[in-house]
Amino acid sequence: MNQNLKDLQKNINYIYKDEKKLIQALTHRSYLNEHRGLNLQSNETYEFLGDSVLEFWISGKLFHQFPHFDEGDLTNLRSLIVCTQNLSLIATQINLGNFVMLSKGEERHGGRSNSSILADTYESILGSIYLDGGTTPAFKFLEKTLSQSISKLSSKEIYKDPKSLFQEIAQSRRGITPRYQTISESGPDHQKNFKVAVYLDKDLIATGSGNSKQKAEEDASIKATKILTNLV
Fold this sequence. Notes:
Blueprint: H1 2-12, H2 19-26, H3 29-34, H4 44-65, H5 71-82, H6 84-93, H7 104-108, H8 115-133, H9 135-154, H10 162-173, E1 179-186, E2 193-200, E3 203-210, H11 213-228
């Protein structure tokens, strides 16, 4: 495990003062069920903190970098950058999936490439860096990992979060506003999984899943956009 921790710290360009914070940042809740004797905690509180740090940093970054953007463009560009799809892509680029601690069952079901798990782990890593070293290394981590995304996504003519983008496409091509419906909800309160369908009128376009209704709707809208624009 120690060598793995060293490899990951090289990937993220940050050396922890307290490696226990890194271990917690990598501990998915599923891992705890199989390792109750290790006295570990899941990364969920770190994810909560990291989400707040990310929101603060990206808001200031976009405000200063794009002073000519109006509030709507800033909001939509921010949503696009911090959405699950983009954060999971960033997490993949720094190989987080290889280091996250999962249950055997979660791993068998593709947990190491699960976009929701990867995005959540990215935020928990950010939270752990902030706790270990403060704002300076946390912001450096964000600058290093997100700068390319900001440049790429800001160069688009339309800055839309996944649901807004799909709604615009659906209204343009079909004249219909998408409707989302929760199909199923499973798992205990601390480990919920939602499945959501998106419809245009009575036509089922796509389904999505996630650990919150919002993430499931986002997943469904991304898939639906690809279908409506013939990208799949």
